[in-house]
């Protein structure tokens, strides 16, 4: 019953017309009914072959992390985030929700791996998962018998054109993907492993328009050739492969027993296949030291050279552009123009280079060097011969190309400043024009709602008044404090006013307690303090006589002076004939209060 | 109306992409009046709001991943629709706008791509990826266009909100130093240099903020989102053609009249364009 009610509530909650209050209550109930929060990590398979992939699932029960967790780096494993999935369930009144983040795990090599336990922080709570083991077995190429029998739906074959290469020699390996004739479709081909230790590998690409069909055993296979550009960079015995790959192929369905037209939709079933090649051994030879030209800079291949220079009729110090084009096949990337010792009478500037490749691997084409030189004196009559040496791996010999000297006419002239050499666009990689936009971002980042800028938000502007008001308050306080510190009369006036205020309260207490001695002692002191402050003299110097003698007090009204005299006399009388009775003391206190008030009005 | 523009909420670029707010959070605000609620009810409401917010974030992340997948599959128009659908919920992030711009560019919509990159750059002005892609797409645009000046580039290194917070922080720090000097006069010699430096920085930051705000609120840029748009000499369809703008051209907005906007290109030509053919962004 409760389930039904919650279920109905849930359905209604998805409808925007549901009262939000009820929705809020429902969501809270879901949160309350949910079990304890937990975080688990799991693999769909703990043993896979190299080239296969496993799925890692990070499941959060009862909690909802803000973003997908970041996985720890594991050498030899590559993780790719797939996306989240969520589920809700209502079982016996218990509601549970979970979110699972899925990752594809692609091994880069065989062996046993441990994915460490992960710690995640969700809303201040710490959760941890257990470590996971993943065993990756070696991928083996199918046997010749299996291939010939036609039992292999697909297989890979790797061929390398030579079994001996020279270091620096570029070659294109060939990876043939064989697909049996009953494969209806294939896709998601991924090269999962391409071990080529000792080689520098370029980008693997399909050889265009070279697909073919071949008979292997009892089956016809479609052969899709892929080119793997490789350049040996280390001498010795090297091994290429085994290359591994995975692909999804669509085969005719085994279950096609249904009647037409229902079997029409049952066209095929998809199968994930793992492919591997046999390893290929290659011996890499070092370049011979014998007959190595002095100006050899490491160019390996077969090249031709063209040199042009101009202008040839110049004034000493004028620039001459020397353009050297090295064309041919080989590792053009590594081709460098040798230093020309014979150009000692020229000032030289660093050359700029431009590479134009004639094939997709960059192994054929033309590399152009443009160098600015300027003759230093009018004794120069020619551009000395330019030489370039390379090693040709086909014949195992070094070759030196020499361009004959170019005649120059150099006139003597007054010294003139050298023209500035504009930097070439190809001089630095950062100046190169990008070929495409950068790819999309995988992480959503922090989400925010569109809002009004802070500078026009009243709350933000009002908040700026707080420090201003604090400063004004501090400023006024400081001024008052300084003023008081520099005015002793004012300070005494305030101190006496406070004393009188407190003293009058005490007088009323003494009167109420009928304590005449304390009462009149305090009264006398208050009179002294107030008069002393008004007359600017020590309180102890005040006696009844000042009322008559002091010129300031003469400005006071006669009533005030009379009251002062009588109050002093009351104090004197109290020593010999104490006044008794609270009411009498109270009337004296009231009189004193009035008199002191009048006295404060007297200008000091 | 010279200057002083108002920017309406982002409108739908695709009619088929319906706004699909998954949780009626906005409705909750209208039905629950806090003055009628007790503390317990308010706590329930806040808990529900938090839970609903988390679900909303998870939904957005799922939609974002789905759009990324479409992009990876080469279905750029579908990916752009996916990103646009998220943006229509009012949520935005630099990455979301960046990806939307990428998808628009790959779909051949230079203007929409530039507008989205510029919006992303306003949220995250120091993101190198956004700047690189914006520069790349701008290079594809043909015809006259208006670009930010050097000082505008310099000022846009901070967002308007970052500038406001920085200025406020310096202002508070300066006044805190002044208050400290009033309360403890003995500190005056030691705080003198710091106070002057902070005051100078505050004035400088406030000046920059003022220029930033002036640029943001009093000027606008129209990015042309259709190709070969005819800019007319007046705000009506029968007006003579003044010049033609290409998809992605950025034009300076100088006035607005009904559904027309007056624009000027980088060569001094000006004219009127229908609002539906441009996307108007704050700032020059």
Lay out the secondary structure.
The complex is a heterodimer of chains A (604) and B (284).
Chain A: H1 2-13, H2 20-33, E1 38-43, E2 47-49, E3 54-61, E4 77-91, E5 94-107, E6 111-115, E7 119-122, E8 125-128, E9 132-137, H3 144-149, E10 154-159, E11 164-166, E12 170-180, E13 185-193, E14 199-201, E15 205-206, E16 212-216, E17 219-232, E18 236-240, E19 244-252, E20 268-276, E21 280-285, E22 301-310, E23 313-315, E24 320-330, E25 346-348, E26 352-357, E27 364-375, E28 382-383, E29 386-392, E30 397-403, E31 406-407, E32 409-411, E33 448-449, H4 458-463, H5 465-485, H6 488-512, H7 516-535, H8 546-549, H9 551-554, H10 558-576, H11 582-601
Parallel strand pairs in A: 2-9, 11-21, 23-32
Antiparallel strand pairs in A: 1-3, 3-5, 4-5, 6-9, 7-8, 10-12, 12-17, 13-19, 14-17, 15-17, 16-17, 18-21, 19-20, 22-24, 24-27, 25-27, 26-27, 28-31, 29-30
Helix pairs in contact in A: 1-2, 6-7, 6-11, 7-10, 7-11, 10-11
Chain B: H1 25-31, H2 39-72, H3 76-87, E1 91-92, H4 94-106, H5 110-123, H6 128-140, H7 150-155, H8 160-183, H9 188-218, E2 220-224, E3 229-232, E4 241-245, E5 250-257, E6 260-264, E7 270-274, E8 278-282
Antiparallel strand pairs in B: 2-5, 2-8, 3-4, 5-6, 6-7
Helix pairs in contact in B: 2-3, 3-4, 4-5, 5-6, 8-9
Number of strands of chain B: 8
Helix and strand run of chain B: HHHEHHHHHHEEEEEEE
Total of DSSP H or I helical runs spanning 4+ residues of chain B: 9
- The stretches of 5 or more residues of chain A where confidence is low (pLDDT under 50) are 1-34, 414-430
**Which structural class best describes the helix and strand composition of chain A?**
alpha+beta
- Quote the distance from N terminus to C terminus of chain A: 93 Å
What best-fitting shape of chain B do the alpha-carbon axes yield?
Answer: globular
Counted beta strands of chain A = 33
Q: Number of DSSP helices of chain A?
A: 11
Reported for the largest beta sheet of chain A, the result is: 6 strands, antiparallel
On the 0 to 100 scale, the average pLDDT of chain A is 81
Q: What is the percentage of strand-forming residues of chain A?
A: 35-45%
- Biggest interface, which chains? A-B, 54 and 70 residues
């Amino acid at each position: 019953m409760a389930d039904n009610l919650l279920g109905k509530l849930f359905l209604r909650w998805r409808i925007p017309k549901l009262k939000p209050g009820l929705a809020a209550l429902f969501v809270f109930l879901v949160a309350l009914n949910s079990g304890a929060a937990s975080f688990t990590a799991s693999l769909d398979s703990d043993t896979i072959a190299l080239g296969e992939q496993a799925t890692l699932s990070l499941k959060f029960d009862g909690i909802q992390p803000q973003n997908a967790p970041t996985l720890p780096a594991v050498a030899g494993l590559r993780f790719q985030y797939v996306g989240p999935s969520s589920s809700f369930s209502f079982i016996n009144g218990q509601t549970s929700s979970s979110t699972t983040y899925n990752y594809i795990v692609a091994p880069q090599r065989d062996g046993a791996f441990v994915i460490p336990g992960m710690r995640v922080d969700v809303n201040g709570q710490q959760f941890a998962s257990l470590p996971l083991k993943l065993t990756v077995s070696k991928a083996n190429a199918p046997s010749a018998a299996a291939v010939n029998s036609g039992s292999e739906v697909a297989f890979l074959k790797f061929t390398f054109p030579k079994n001996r290469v020279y270091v620096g020699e570029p070659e294109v390996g060939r990876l043939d993907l064989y697909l049996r004739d009953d494969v209806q479709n294939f896709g998601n081909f991924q090269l999962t492993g391409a071990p080529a230790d000792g080689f520098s590998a370029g980008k693997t690409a399909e050889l265009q328009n070279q697909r073919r069909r071949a008979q292997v055993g009892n089956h016809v296979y479609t052969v899709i050739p892929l080119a793997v550009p490789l350049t040996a960079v280390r001498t010795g015995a090297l091994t290429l492969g085994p290359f591994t790959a995975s692909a999804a192929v669509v085969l005719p369905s085994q279950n096609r027993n249904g009647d037409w037209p229902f079997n029409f939709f049952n066209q095929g079933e998809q199968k994930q296949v793992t492919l591997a090649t046999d390893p290929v051994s290659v011996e890499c030879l070092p370049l011979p030291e014998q007959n190595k030209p002095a100006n050899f800079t490491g160019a390996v291949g077969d090249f031709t050279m063209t040199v042009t220079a101009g202008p040839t009729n110049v004034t000493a110090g004028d620039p001459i552009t020397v353009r050297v084009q090295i064309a041919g096949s080989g590792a053009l990337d590594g081709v460098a123009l040798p230093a020309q010792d014979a150009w000692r009478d020229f000032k030289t500037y660093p050359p700029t280079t431009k590479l134009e490749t004639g094939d997709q691997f960059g192994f054929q084409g033309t590399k152009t060097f443009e160098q600015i030189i300027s003759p230093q004196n009018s004794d120069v009559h020619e551009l000395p011969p330019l030489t370039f040496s390379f090693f040709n791996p086909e014949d195992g010999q070094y070759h030196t190309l020499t361009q004959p000297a170019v005649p120059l006419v150099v006139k003597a002239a007054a010294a003139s400043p050298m023209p500035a050499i504009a930097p070439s666009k190809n001089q630095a990689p950062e100046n190169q024009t990008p070929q495409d936009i950068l790819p999309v971002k995988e992480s959503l980042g922090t989400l925010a709602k569109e809002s009004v800028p802070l500078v026009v938000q009243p709350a933000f502007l009002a908040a700026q008044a707080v420090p201003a008001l604090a400063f004004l308050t501090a400023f006024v306080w400081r001024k008052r404090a300084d003023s008081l510190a520099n005015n002793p009369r004012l300070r005494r006036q305030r101190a006496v006013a406070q004393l009188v205020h407190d003293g009058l309260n005490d007088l009323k207490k003494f009167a109420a307690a009928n304590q005449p001695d304390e009462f009149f002692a305090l009264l006398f002191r208050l009179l002294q303090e107030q008069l002393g402050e008004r007359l600017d003299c020590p309180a102890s110097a005040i006696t009844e006589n000042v009322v008559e003698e002091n010129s300031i007090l003469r400005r006071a009204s006669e009533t005030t002076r009379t009251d002062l005299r009588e109050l002093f006399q009351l104090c004197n009388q109290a020593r010999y004939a104490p006044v008794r009775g609270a009411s009498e003391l109270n009337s004296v206190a009231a009189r004193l209060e009035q008199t002191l008030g009048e006295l404060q009005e007297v200008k000091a | 109306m010279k200057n002083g523009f108002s920017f309406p909420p982002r409108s739908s670029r695709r009619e088929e992409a319906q706004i699909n707010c998954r949780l009626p959070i906005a409705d909750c605000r209208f039905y629950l009046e806090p003055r009628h609620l007790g503390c317990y009810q308010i706590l329930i409401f806040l808990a529900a709001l938090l839970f609903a917010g988390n679900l909303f974030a998870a939904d957005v992340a799922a939609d974002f991943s789905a759009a990324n997948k479409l992009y990876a599959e080469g279905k750029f128009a579908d990916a752009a629709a996916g990103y646009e659908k998220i943006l229509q919920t009012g949520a935005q992030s630099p990455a979301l706008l960046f990806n939307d711009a990428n998808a628009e560019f790959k779909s051949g919509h230079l203007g929409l791509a530039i507008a989205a990159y510029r919006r992303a750059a306003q949220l995250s002005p120091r993101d190198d990826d956004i700047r690189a892609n914006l520069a790349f797409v701008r290079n594809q645009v043909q015809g006259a266009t208006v670009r930010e000046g050097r000082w505008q580039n310099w000022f846009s290194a901070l967002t308007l909100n970052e500038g406001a917070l920085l200025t406020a922080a310096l202002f508070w720090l300066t006044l805190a130093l002044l208050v400290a000097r009033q309360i403890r006069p003995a500190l005056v010699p030691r705080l003198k240099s710091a106070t002057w430096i902070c005051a100078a920085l505050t004035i400088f930051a406030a000046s920059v903020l003022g220029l930033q705000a002036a640029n943001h609120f009093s000027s606008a840029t129209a990015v042309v989102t259709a190709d070969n748009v005819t800019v007319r000499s007046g705000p009506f369809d029968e007006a003579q053609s003044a010049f033609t703008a290409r998809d992605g051209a950025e034009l300076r907005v100088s006035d607005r009249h009904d559904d027309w906007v007056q624009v000027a290109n980088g060569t001094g030509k000006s004219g009127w364009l229908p609002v539906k053919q441009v996307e108007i962004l704050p700032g020059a």
